[in-house]
Structures are given as C-alpha cells and as structure tokens.
Amino acid sequence: MTGDTETEPFPTWFSASSFTHRIAVDILQNGPISRVSLARRFGLTQGAVSRITSDLAHWGVIETAGLLPTSKEEQTEDPRTNQDKTEGDFSETGAARTRLRAGRPQQALVIRHDAKTFIGVNLHGATAMAVAVDLACQPVGMPHQKEIQHRGPGQVTEVLTGLVRDCMAEIRQAGLPEPSGLGISLGGRAAGNRVVTYAPFLQWSEHVDLAAAMEKACGLPCLVFNDLDALALYEGWFGAGIGLDRFVLITIGSGVGYSLAEHGMPVSSSDEGYGLIGHQLVDPDGPTCYLGHRGCAQCLTTGSLVEQYSRKIGRAATVEQFVHDLDQDLPQANTLLNLTGFRLGVLIASVANVAVPEKILIGGETSYLMKRCGESIRKGIDSYRHSQMAEVPLQIIDNDWNRWAQAPAARAIASYLMAPDEADGPQTRYV
C-alpha cells in the first residue's frame, strides 16, 4: 500500500459529552477520587458531576470503593442557585456559587480496571514484545517476546500474531474480558495510526498497512504508533507525567528520541517519527555522524559512545566494557561519561528553551548511565540557559522494555476512553 490513509474508526467505550469522557479519564488517573473533587477540578456543579458519574457507573466504567477520609472542607451547591442543568450546558456559574461547610466522608470513585483488557506490542530492532493489560494498563500475566528472523511485512505480521494470541490466551485464563483493542508501536512513522510509512529498523521499502494486516489476522481493532509518542502517553497517563500540563520525554540509546506532551497527550504533527532531534547540534567539536553532521546529538547514542570509547582506549570496545570501566573508575571512561552528560545537558537546554516544559523525562537504554553524571548534565544545561531562569526539573526514568510494550496498549486505552475528536492529542500545524 502506498500513500497516507485516513484514520480508520477505532471503537470507543461510550458516546457522551466531552466532560463525561474527561471525567472518566480523570478517575482513571487520579482515583480513588470524590465527586466533590471532580466538581472542583472541572468547574462543574456537583449535580452535573453526579449525573455524569451515574452514567459512567451504569455503563460499567467506574464503581465506588468505600469512603474517602473526611476532609476539612466539603464543597456543596448553594441552595439559592440549585438549578438543574442538563448535560452539555456546563458553565462554571453553578460551580462558582458554592459554599464550604464541615465535611463528611465522600464516596471514592475508581475505574473498573478489570472491565476491559488490551494488548500492546512493541517492535524494537529485531525483537517484538507483547503484553496484555487491564484498563489501568497493569500487566495481565507475563510479557511475551520473540525475535524476528525475517523482516518482510508478512513475516513480521506472523510473529506479532503469535504473540497476540499468546496474550489473548493469558487473558482468558485470568477470566477477564476479551481484548477491546490492540496497540503496536515501532521506531518510525505510522500515517493515520495505521499505515507504516517509515520504519528504518524494519527496512521496509513500501508503505505497509500493518493495522489492517493485524486486524485480519487477530480479529481485534488495531492502531499503530510511533514508539516514543506511545511511551510519552504512557508516562502522561500512568507514569511520571501524571498531572503535568506539559512535559518532554527524551530517550537515548540506539537512537535519540523526543516527544512533547500536553495534558498527558503527545503533540502530533505530520513530521513526527523521523527522529530529527537526533541531529540537533550539541557540541561543535564532537564526532561526525553518518549524515556528515559534526557534533550532533547522534553522539549520545550507544553506537557512538562505543566508537568514541574505542578511540580513547586504542582498541575495539563494547558498551559492557565501557560500563565495566566506569565501575572501575577508569579516567578515560569517566571523561567520556562526563562529556556525554554535558552534551545531553546542552540538548536539554535547547528543548527547555523552546518547549518550556514543566519537567523533562530522560529514558532509553543508556539513560541509567546519566544518573552518574548529574553535575555534568547541569553544567551543560546552565551553559545555554539564562542565569535567572528557573532550574529545569529532570527525572531519569528506568528503561523497562515491558513498559515499552505497555505503552502502545496505553495509547489504545486512550483512544477507547476519550472522545474521538480528542484521542489524537494536540496538533502541530505548519503553514
């Protein structure tokens, strides 16, 4: 198949107002939570929230889980303005006309995490990993992994189908509902979350409608995502990015990746998935990359680190030897690590200056090494930030390949739970 295609419909759990979908997501991310807290967070009357949560409970989306501890204050509707508002007419007026009185225990609302299941599959180089999850993106059973011997579309589809069937069997064994959807992630770009148009690790020369192939083979609705954007959504919904209005995820390992997320959703554009941040200048005296750029962010990749260290010690090295020499506190290894940390800091500063995130997350295969050179990273950041600017909050997240497999399942969950016009996240437009 050639060319981009329109996004195919992916099933949603229910059809309701945007507030209803948003409140369901909020309960998923922040539950157990009270109706009072939801009313305050969304600027709605408690009556409106009660009707919304009653609908969600009727549809089997949420349930009550006992009582929350008594709070000091309880927000209640002012009886002078206790007017019934129909769904779809939710102004902040009613919520603003409230009073505070002594609180009483509130019912705790939680998502029914066992009501739905999903399957996530991540393609990383020649390895595919799949995992079944519940609605809270918690694994059901163990992850399943298989090497891809032949990278043709048909052979890849066959391997993925086998992994999906293993996950489906595990779901049935656990007595949980059949999967509601399948999410697949890979390094590259998938037009319309279906057609793979760029996948350097798979070396496909033509566009491949991987979603259609998997739907035919497995009988499940399928979406295909860029792996970094999928991981960014996972962190925004279930991980280190919960509650942040804007954060950035940078990964270093076999490549260099970047994703900007707003309100838990990765910002999408027509140019995503090509790994362009990997060629951002970080050191004018750095090594030359495979495209001829001197000192670009490719010097942060695992392959470049190994090449640089081999030159330093005068013989062929491996990443394992580099880590071993760091453990032995060898000067050559420490020098390269601190230089790499400084270069990463320069990249972080460039991103922070432009995207202005609340936090930057650092992940990827070699991110754990950056925990050893925090001072060098800060020096790199400070070199390209004004002295009066706030410090950039950083968090290095552990690189767990299971999480990379959970991530596309998280994106499928988002598409299933959100209003259709919001499921693709904020859009970046170019004119």
From TrEMBL:
Top-rank taxon of the source lineage equals: Bacteria
The biased composition feature labelled Basic and acidic residues covers 71-88
This protein's species is Bifidobacterium coryneforme
InterPro entries associated with the record: ATPase_NBD, ROK, WH-like_DNA-bd_sf, WH_DNA-bd_sf
- Name under which the protein is recorded: NagC family transcriptional regulator
Q: Do you know which SUPFAM superfamilies this protein is assigned to?
A: Actin-like ATPase domain (SSF53067), Winged helix' DNA-binding domain (SSF46785)
State the residue spans of region: Disordered: 68-101
Q: Which family does the UniProt entry place this protein in?
A: Belongs to the ROK (NagC/XylR) family.
PANTHER family, alphabetized:
BIFUNCTIONAL UDP-N-ACETYLGLUCOSAMINE 2-EPIMERASE_N-ACETYLMANNOSAMINE KINASE, ROK (REPRESSOR, ORF, KINASE) FAMILY
Q: Which Pfam families match?
A: ROK
